[in-house]
Design a protein that fits this description.
Elements: H1 2-6, E1 8-9, E2 12-17, E3 28-30, E4 33-34, E5 37-39, E6 47-51, E7 65-70, E8 79-83, E9 96-104, E10 111-117, E11 122-129, E12 135-140, E13 151-158, E14 166-176, E15 179-180, H2 182-200
Length: 201
């Protein structure tokens, strides 16, 4: 309500993959919206397209395909996302979030670890438990140093208990995070002392 009252600055969708009718034969995909590249060549032998969802989609997309991976073999490598920052959001990969819809079968990979490349090393930023029903995961990316020339994320699966177990990704996207306008930040600062006693109870 505070943000609605004061307004916000929203960069919006910057890059997105919906996987609908995607040609996955090369083990990589260019973004369906914006510019970016998704590389899953190291686990391409264990991928397929499955039924997708409209969850986390943009432009009222109807459910189409989802990118899926099968069994423990898909846990031997990783999927990588590369996206070049743009000056419109400050010149570096900050104030961003990555989100995607995901679901698994009962024996599919039950965890997705997300790391960001710092320019010299991988930084763990999230460990996500996948559910057997579609759900959306949102990962904030404020820890990626501005010294990195590009935003590079790594997604690694774990926990599959059967070679036929599957996990699916759909509507993978990079968005700019809403930044409160200066007046909103001032209002939020005034509200903080009032919230603290309530947290102690």
């Amino acid at each position: 309500m505070v943000l609605a009252a004061g307004g916000s600055v929203q960069a919006g969708l910057l890059a997105g993959w919906n996987f609908n009718a995607a040609d996955t034969s090369t083990g990589s995909l260019l973004a369906d919206f914006g510019s970016g590249r998704l590389d899953f060549a190291s686990i391409a032998d264990h991928h397929d397209l499955f039924g997708g969802t409209s969850m986390n989609a943009w432009d009222d997309l109807t459910p189409g395909d989802a990118l899926g991976f099968r069994g423990p073999g898909a846990e031997s490598g990783s999927m990588f996302l590369d996206w070049d920052p743009t000056p419109e959001i400050g010149g570096g990969p900050r104030n961003l979030q990555c989100s995607f819809a995901t679901r698994r079968s009962g024996t599919g990979s039950d965890r997705v670890d997300v790391d960001a490349w710092s320019g010299s090393d991988w930084i763990p930023i999230a460990s996500i438990a996948t559910a057997t029903e579609w759900s959306t995961s949102v990962v904030a990316l404020p820890v990626v140093p501005s010294t990195s020339a590009t935003l590079r994320l790594r997604f690694t699966l774990s926990g599959a208990s059967n070679p036929q177990g599957t996990v699916r990704f759909d509507n993978l996207r990079i968005d700019g995070v809403a930044v409160p306008a200066p007046g909103v930040l001032a209002t939020m600062g005034l509200l903080v002392p009032r919230l603290r006693p309530r947290r102690r109870r």
